Amino acid sequence: MTNTEGAIFDDGAVEKQAIDHAETASVFEEDEREARRVLRKIDFRLLPLLIGLYTLTFLDRVNIGNAAVWNLKSDLHLVGYDYNIIVLVFYIPYILFEIPSNMVIDRVQPRYWVSFLAFAWGMSVTFSGFAKNMGGLLTARILLGLFEAGIFPGLLFLIGSWYRREELLTRMSLFMVSNDIAGVLSGLLGAGFGSLDGTGGYSGWSWIFFIEGAMTVAAAVLAFFLLPPFPEESTFLTPEEKAWYLRRLKRDDNNREGEQEKMQFCGMLRSLRDWKVLTAGVLYLSVCVTAYSLSVFQPVVLTSFGWSSLKSNLLTAPVRAVSGIISVCTGFWSDKIKKRGIFCLVGYLISIMGLLFVMLFHNGNLRYMGFYFASIGIYICQPLVIGWCVNQVLGHTKRGTVTAFAVSCGQVGGIISALVFPASNSPQYVPGISTCIGFQGLGILAVLNMWWWCRWENRQREAGKRDHLRSLSAEEQEKLGELHPDFRYML
After folding, report:
1. Secondary structure (3-state) at 479
2. Most confident of 147-156, 379-388, 434-443
3. For the Major facilitator superfamily (MFS) profile domain, which residue ranges apply (predicted)?
4. Which label site among 105, 121, 265, 416 has the fewest CB atoms less than 10 Å from its CB?
5. Cβ-based neighbour number of residue 188 at 10 Å
6. What is the average pLDDT across 74-86?
7. Mean pLDDT on 79-83
8. What is the pTM of this model?
């Protein structure tokens, strides 16, 4: 909507404005090339920076796995479960502050909040390189979890506000390929920075933290100047482009007027009673137990094959490169045919097969092949389950809640993964891998539940069994969100 609407004008000015808007709408809606140009403009303005930020987020979160093979444990005298506890503590503040952070980003321009968080977590990573004992590294990891908590759900919230439902998963997949970019870079940078071992009197693990933390601080400065706001406050589109694009979003979302309302605590609690929001938490938890296990413990498991620290770090990179490419291709395919559930099921099954390879075989090459299947399957699922659940809800508050709640549950998966891979279970890690398979089985049940119920509800609406809601006033119908009889759930 434009700022001139609702102001006091003479009748001629109001009529001229209505004609101008109608002409603008026809230009974009009749010329597909012009519409695609605006969409590309938004993509290029939004996605590269978000991908870069989340790549650094994930890189700084999992570089503890690379540091572990460059003298971290011996320098800090870590024994038994000490390393697992250091991995675990990150997730506690992360879980606690995700939903509150989305309430902040809804009230403060995203560039201010995100750049602050990025600067603070970058400094936390940098100074963790100076740790002299377990307590120092624990403190740094707690601060890292606190400041990173708002980044992932906040950026997902921002993406979900900019795109229509059938366009969302492609963008989610491109955004979440950051995990794979970080996985590739983590192995390569871990090998490169770790090889500075002894330079300046610091071990290789310290150099990993020093340099990767400094990269994040630099990215925080870019975010302050370049990160766009929500669509309603955007300035990089021309007034005509913005007016058309907001109308386009409103047609996709019969609650778009409510998008300008800020997240409230009571609304958030109401959203948490919705079974779709709760299912989002189960789905993302089932993904993250395996995703975090692969990210943090894969280098450690590879060294149990008898491979060197350098080789183990380097061989994590091609696994993530392949899984990232397949994840993005799957996202395009899913948006094209407007289906989600079938891809989730296939992803879980492929990942389970790969994990069985890693757990049951003893040959290092076969087990390494298993990591490919496990990663491909789980990183197909990761953007799918978030995108699918965002597709099933309408309204600013519910979208903000579903992204934050799902990601919070996902971090519980990080805690679980940190506890079930003790060094004493090397080299097969049967308890840890069995745990991952069990949670993926739970994910399959959640997918089947979401698909069946949404299919049933769509059929009820097509049969006219929800048409009694049309008798409500226009204002009450706007508040129905996804309960509106015109809304169809994504299958």
Report:
1. coil
2. 434-443
3. 46-461
4. 265
5. 15
6. 84
7. 82
8. 0.73
Angstrom CA distances, 80 to 64, 77, 83, 289, 425, stand at: 16, 10, 7, 21, 11
The whole-angstrom separation of Cα 246 and Cα 2 is 10
What architecture (CATH level 2) is domain 11-232+260-483?
A: Up-down Bundle (1.20)
Q: What was the pLDDT predicted at 64?
A: 82
Q: Residue 14: which H helix or E strand, with range?
A: helix 11-30
With cut-offs at 50, 70 and 90, classify the pLDDT of residue 481: confident
Residues 209-240: tens digit of each pLDDT: 899 999 999 999 999 998 888 888 888 888 88
Between helix 316-337 and helix 178-194 the angle, nearest 10°, is 170
- Which helix (H) or strand (E) segment is 281 a member of? helix 275-303
Instruction: DSSP for 382-429, please give it.
Output: HHHHHHHHHHT--SHHHHHHHHHHHHHHHHHHHHHHHHS--GGGTTT-
- Write the DSSP symbol of residue 263: P
Domain ranges of the chain: 11-232+260-483
How far apart, in Å, are the Cα atoms of 490 and each of 50, 339, 375, 456?
25, 7, 25, 12
